[in-house]
Every structure is written in structure tokens, then in C-alpha cells.
Design a protein that fits this description.
DBL_dom_sf, coiled coil, alpha+beta, about 15% strand, ARHGEF10/ARHGEF17, guanyl-nucleotide exchange factor activity
């Protein structure tokens, strides 16, 4: 009795819990399907029939894009679910119903297109509310007449939330399904299917967002050829950064600093100046957007980072003479204080190292003196050496600090008259050391992703 009682009770408890979770699945699905129907019946249908129209046919289609197809998928699932509930006492399985319903390509296609279009749909709704008071009144009236007073935005969010809800319910069901139960493997398969589906939706959303970003950049560019270039192929945006570009004269002296925006695409690096532009829409409202004035655009695979001051010692990684790299960092500095960049700092360091060498030679010569002279002995020479060594350490610290936010790039230029390749340099300062590091890492990863084109 002591062994059979608990086993029987546990099995009975599992049955009760599984039936309860099944009820939650059925209820949540009914509420979800009802929400989709409400979108179409209380919003889409009246808006399409009313005269004069508050939304054009094109905007109406964009706002309610793919909702009918999603409703169709879930209506079929609801039928299969009801059929399984009716025979639950003999067939205690639900995982196979999920697999059969949500492994179809039409589900992924309908949901991904809905999710990708969601921000566009919401943008149209917000803009129309701001420009047409009658449309805002219509939405408020629909909300007030609904029993739960949920907004159209709240209803439209439900497809975004649906698969995470399904995953939680199935995880709960699996947790309460013992090993050996006929529903355990189908539940595991259903969970895998839904998690894969959710990940694919996220991937497609990321791809759509990246394509949208590229289109926005292309639209804002002042170069027509570049607009076409960006709009073609499988280009995507890796990152956008605001930096300070430092420009020098031939002597290596700072001429000016400029705010720039760098666009790192998967195969192109672009540098532009940002400027605002204003235009008037058909409604008469002024819209302010960004306009980019392109400074240069180069193949990403040919971009090289020039690092100063590596662990090997000053100047060993320097492809250009230090005297041509003087830099005043004028960002985030205290008033009336001059900050000299790595070029000048390296020059100062070389002078200190030179002087240390001379002082060492003088120290050896002092050691060979026959007489004793005031302020000319080994103790004084040691003080000179010690002082110079401290100055060298301090200068090295200054160089490291200046390099933290500094990116110097070697970039391909146009061929010269002989057809030989030329290069130019550009120096930028990021706003934090972390941005510099992540930017360089992204550049390296993107170049690797380009394959062997630039790594023969």
C-alpha cells in the first residue's frame, strides 16, 4: 500500500495538471483568434467601407498586412485542437497537433512578413492620428465599445507575442509529462519546432531591419551612384558611429577637427557629414530628416588600421614618420589646456630617450674623473638618470591614454597617372575606448567574412 498509493496519486495528479494546461492552451488560442477577428471586423472592415476614407487603400493594406493569413493558420489549428480535446481521454497527446500545424512554410511566411511590417503599420497609425482627428476619434470609439477596452495597438501586438506564449505553455506541459509518456517526444519536437520558428522570425526581422537601414541611408545620400550601389545586392549595415576626424597639414600640425558619421557595411566603409534637411509633406506639415554629404567610400577589405605604440615598443608599428602625425585632441578637454596627440608625444619620447642615452654616457665619463667637484659626481648623475626615467614612464602613459580612443586608417585612393595604387590616411577619435575596440573588432570580423578575396 505504501508504494502503490503515491504512484497512483502522482499519475492522477499529472493527468489533472496536463488537462489544466490543455485548457489554458485552448482558452489562450480562443482569445487570440478572437483578437485577430476583432482587428478585421471592428477596424479593417469599417475603415475600408466608410466614405470619405480615413485611410487610403494602400495604407489600409499596409496597416492590416497578413492578418487574414495569420487568422487562417490559427483557425485551422483551432479545429485540430478541438478535435484532439474531444478525444483527450483516449489520446492524451497535444505535441503532434502543434508540429502538424506550425511546421508549414505558410506560417513562417505570414508571421515574418507581419513582424517585418509591424513598425511600418504602427508608423502609419501614429501619423494618421496626428494629422486626422476623425481617425483618432474612430480608434477611441472602437476602444470604448470593446469589453476589455484594449487598443488597436494592443490587439496588433498579439501576433508578436504569440509564439513566446506557446513556448511557455508547452514547456509547462513537458515539465508535467513523465518519461515514457506517448506525448513526451511529440512535445519535445513541438518545442523545437516553435523555438526554431521564433528564431527564424527574429533572423528575418533583423535582415529586414538592416535592409531598411540601408534604404534610409541610400535615400539620405547626396550621391546618385552610391544610392544605386547601396540599394543593390545583399548589402547590410553592421554599425553606424559618430566620430571626430582630425585633419593635419604637411608638417603634421592639426588644421581642423570635423564631426563625421562612419557607416560600416559588410563590404563598404563610408564617411559622411550629417546635416539636417527640411521638407513639406502634402499635408503641409514640415518633416525634418537627415541628409548625408559623402566624404569618401572605400571597399571594406582594403581598410587597414594603423596602430601606434604597441607592446613591441614605440614606433615599431608606425608606417608613417611620427613627425607627420602630430595631433591635438580637442574633445572633452579642460579649457586652456593643450592635449598633444601621439605624433608629438612620440617625438617627445624620442627626445627623452636620446637624452637618457647622453646622460648615461656622461655618467660613465664622470666615473673616470680624478678629482672631486661640486655638483659633478655619480650621485648627481644618478639623479639625472632617475628623473629622465620617470619622465619617460610618464610620456609612455600619455601615449597609451591618447591611443585609447584614436583610430588611424590607411585607405585606398584613386590610381595615379601610372596606374599604381595610392593610399591616404584618416584619423578619428571615438568617444570612449570601448567604442574603438568594438569598432576594430567588427572591422576585423567583417573582413574575415568577405572570404579570401583580400587574404590571398
Amino acid at each position: 500500500i505504501g508504494t502503490t498509493g503515491p504512484t497512483f496519486n502522482f499519475y492522477h495528479f499529472e493527468q489533472v495538471v496536463r488537462r489544466y494546461i490543455l485548457g489554458s492552451v485552448v482558452d489562450s488560442e480562443k482569445n487570440y483568434v478572437d483578437a485577430l477577428k476583432r482587428i478585421l471586423e471592428q477596424y479593417e472592415k469599417p475603415l475600408s467601407e466608410m466614405e470619405p476614407k480615413l485611410l487610403s487603400e494602400r495604407k489600409l493594406k499596409m496597416v492590416f498586412y497578413r492578418i487574414k493569413e495569420i487568422l487562417q493558420c490559427h483557425s485551422m489549428f483551432q479545429i485540430a485542437l478541438a478535435s484532439r480535446v474531444s478525444e483527450w481521454d483516449s489520446v492524451e497527446m497535444i505535441g503532434d497537433v502543434f508540429v502538424a500545424s506550425f511546421s508549414k512554410s505558410m506560417v513562417l511566411d505570414a508571421y515574418s512578413e507581419y513582424v517585418n511590417n509591424f513598425s511600418t503599420a504602427v508608423g502609419i497609425l501614429k501619423k494618421t492620428c496626428a494629422t486626422k482627428p476623425a481617425f483618432l476619434d474612430f480608434l477611441k470609439q472602437c476602444q470604448e465599445l470593446s469589453p476589455d477596452r484594449i487598443t488597436l495597438y494592443g490587439l496588433m501586438m498579439k501576433p508578436i507575442q504569440r509564439f513566446p506564449q506557446f513556448i511557455l505553455l508547452l514547456q509547462d506541459m513537458l515539465k508535467n509529462t513523465t518519461k515514457g509518456h506517448p506525448d513526451r517526444l511529440p512535445l519535445q519536437m513541438a518545442l523545437t519546432e516553435l523555438e526554431t520558428l521564433a528564431e527564424k522570425l527574429n533572423e528575418r526581422k533583423r535582415d529586414a531591419d538592416q535592409r531598411c537601414e540601408i534604404k534610409q541611408i541610400a535615400k539620405a545620400m547626396n550621391e546618385r551612384y552610391l544610392n544605386k550601389l547601396l540599394s543593390s545586392g545583399n548589402r547590410y549595415l553592421i554599425r553606424t558611429d559618430d566620430m571626430i576626424e582630425t585633419v593635419y597639414n604637411e608638417k603634421g600640425e592639426i588644421v581642423k577637427t570635423k564631426e563625421r558619421r562612419l557607416f560600416m557595411l559588410n563590404d563598404v566603409l563610408m564617411c559622411a557629414t550629417v546635416s539636417a534637411r527640411s521638407s513639406y509633406e502634402s499635408s503641409g506639415i514640415m518633416a525634418t530628416g537627415l541628409r548625408y554629404l559623402l566624404k569618401w567610400s572605400v571597399p571594406l577589405g582594403q581598410v587597414e588600421v594603423i596602430e601606434y605604440g604597441s607592446s613591441e615598443g614605440p614606433g615599431e608599428n608606425c608606417r608613417f614618420p611620427p613627425q607627420h602625425s602630430a595631433e591635438n585632441v580637442i574633445v572633452n578637454v579642460k579649457p586652456n589646456k593643450l592635449y598633444m596627440g601621439p605624433g608629438q608625444l612620440y617625438h617627445d619620447l624620442q627626445n627623452l630617450l636620446h637624452d637618457l642615452n647622453i646622460v648615461s654616457q656622461i655618467s660613465q665619463q664622470i666615473g673616470s674623473l680624478k678629482g672631486n667637484y661640486q655638483n659633478l659626481n655619480q650621485s648627481v648623475a644618478h639623479d639625472w638618470t632617475s628623473g629622465l626615467q620617470k619622465l619617460i614612464l610618464k610620456k609612455e602613459d600619455e601615449i597609451r591614454a591618447a591611443d585609447r580612443c584614436r583610430i588611424q586608417l590607411q585607405l585606398p585612393g584613386k590610381q595615379d597617372k601610372s596606374g599604381r595604387p595610392t593610399f591616404f590616411t584618416a584619423v578619428f577619435n571615438t568617444f570612449t575606448p570601448a567604442i574603438k575596440q568594438s569598432w576594430i573588432t567588427n572591422l576585423q570580423m567583417a573582413k574575415l567574412a568577405l572570404g579570401k578575396t583580400y587574404f590571398p
